[in-house]
Design brief:
Layout (H helix, E strand, L loop, with lengths): L4 H22 L1 H10 L21 E5 L2 E4 L4 E4 L2 H4 L8 H13 L8 H14 L3 E5 L2 H16 L3 E5 L44 E4 L4 H11 L3 E6 L15 H11 L3 E5 L11 H6 L5 E4 L10 E5 L1 H4 L16 H14 L2 H24 L5 E5 L2 E5 L8 H4 L4 H12 L3 E2 L8 E2 L6 H19 L1
Parallel strand pairs: 3-13, 5-6, 5-7, 7-8, 8-9
Antiparallel strand pairs: 1-2, 2-3, 4-10, 9-10, 11-12, 12-14
The structure holds pyridoxal-5'-phosphate.
The site of pyridoxal-5'-phosphate has 13 residues, from helix 6.
Length: 454
């Protein structure tokens, strides 16, 4: 068994080189399409998160728990559209709803009864009083932040170091910051994630570490009269998976109430995946506003935010919350079918059982082979983090072993397991996955661990 970190990384780097060569040999059509796509799209992709090294895999089809790339390679899909496909691909119930709507009109820019029913189902799940639909997670957090600032009458937004909440400017600070910024990198600082964000606007987004109540207390004592809203993912899912420490979310709730700060849960990833009512249900802590997107749409683009009626009613008193395609018939029908016919109590039981089978199976294999890693198990979401103890915040994430992850990614993809590219992501299981899919994934991990130890 290889024991030192250096030896493990050296072995991983060698495996990576061999697996990249195998990857290139089996994805020649992807390479050809990449060369063509690059001449019309930056990075040759439709969103920069899809970029790949040496090039992305281009998919052609998805059925159930499987996807097929344009070379004809078949994969069990644990990427699942960056967590937007908890229903799995081409689910018959969702497909039927889409086809029916396509035949009777997909967009009127007026509100349909289906949209009202969709809103009612989301309200029920997340214990919300009112909802406004959007078209993406970015729009949901953008509108919720604006509403929070307007309702509290205070302009500064508080966010967590290392969290991603979409690509509007207010939340594009300290997403993946280098630690030598600010005052020597000792404490979190507002670092823009993109060029083109006016540097002056950094003063409107302050940063605190996750899972650190004393730091939050200090920030609110010092700046509580300027901070209008706090946005966080109740479980961080932009750096693998980071669970809130026991009592953390409760204390955040209490401090936000005390300082008149609107508390926004970004449940774009956790909502309708880790439980029917997302993290709000799972942890039993009620924020003022919840942001949703991804899996609520059953594979059609949609988003929503909602919460306390007295806050949401600010939309009737001067807060803009707009969108031509908000709650359009197609997304409303697909989302409603997903939530009421597919992601049912039985569906969640299936996801829970498979998630635990995968997380415990992976952990057993990693431990048996002496690979320093932890796994997390949260409904259909879970992860392997190549670090010997669980993450508590972004700074811990800096210690995750990149070599072990990268070699692992090419290894599993070359053996028919489609995973999110990047150690910051996690798996998503769909209701159409089977025990055989899970077991195959564990088997491939075991082969990888054996190769590391050779
Ligand atoms: C937690 C979180 N919030 C917001 C977003 C933005 O969602 P979208 O890509 O739909 O704009 C994402 C996307 O990955 C996310 O993970």
């Amino acid at each position: 068994m290889v024991t030192s970190h250096e030896a493990i990384d050296a072995r991983a780097d060698a495996i990576r080189a061999q697996e990249v060569a195998a990857f290139e040999a089996r994805t020649r059509a992807s390479k050809t399409l990449y060369d063509r796509a690059e001449t019309s799209m930056p990075f040759g992709v439709t969103s920069s998160f899809q970029a790949g090294d040496p090039y992305p895999i281009y998919l052609a089809e998805g059925h159930g728990s499987h996807v097929v790339d344009i070379d004809g390679n078949d994969y069990i899909d644990f990427h699942n559209g960056f967590g937007s496909m908890a229903v799995g691909h081409a689910h018959p119930k969702v497909t039927e709803a889409i086809i029916k709507t396509a035949r009777s009109g997909t967009q009127f820019a007026t509100t349909t009864e289906t949209a009202v029913r969709f809103a009612e189902e989301l309200k029920r799940r997340f214990n919300l009083e009112k909802i406004r639909f959007t078209n993406s997670g970015t729009e949901s957090t953008m509108d919720a932040v604006r509403l929070g600032r307007a309702a509290s009458g205070k302009d500064i937004l508080l966010k967590i170091e290392g969290s991603y909440h979409g690509h509007h400017d207010a939340v594009m600070f300290s997403v993946v910051p280098s630690l030598d910024s600010g005052d020597g990198g000792e404490r979190p600082w507002s670092v823009p994630f993109s060029k083109g964000i006016p540097p002056d606007t950094a003063k409107y987004t302050k940063i605190v570490p996750f899972n650190d109540i004393p730091a939050l207390e200090q920030m609110l004592t010092d700046h509580g009269d300027e901070i209008g809203a706090m946005i966080l993912e109740p479980v961080m899912m932009n750096i693998g998976i980071v669970l809130p420490k026991p009592g953390y979310l409760e204390a955040v709730r209490e401090l936000c109430t005390k300082h008149n700060v609107v508390l926004i849960f970004d449940e774009v990833k956790t909502g309708v995946t880790i439980a029917a009512g997302g993290a709000t249900e799972y942890f039993g802590v009620q924020p003022d506003l919840v942001c949703l997107a991804k899996s609520i749409g059953g594979g059609i683009p949609t988003g929503a935010f909602g919460g306390r009626a007295d806050l949401m009613d600010e939309i009737e008193h001067g807060v803009a919350a707009l969108g031509t395609f908000n709650g359009n018939p197609l997304s409303a029908a697909a989302g409603l079918a997903a939530l009421t016919e597919v992601l049912t109590p039985d569906g969640y039981e299936h996801l829970r059982a498979l998630g635990t089978r995968l997380a415990t199976g992976c952990k057993e294999v990693l431990d048996r082979h002496g690979i320093p890693a932890v796994t997390t198990d949260l409904g259909c979401k879970g992860s392997i983090t190549f670090r010997d103890k669980p993450l508590e915040n972004y700074r811990d994430f800096k210690e995750v072993d990149g070599s072990l992850f990268e070699a692992y990614w090419y290894w599993v993809v070359n053996r028919g397991i489609y995973q999110t590219p990047g150690k910051e992501e996690q798996w998503t299981i769909s209701v159409q996955h089977s025990e055989a899919d899970i077991d195959r994934s564990i088997e491939v991990l075991a082969e990888y661990c054996e190769a590391i130890n050779k």
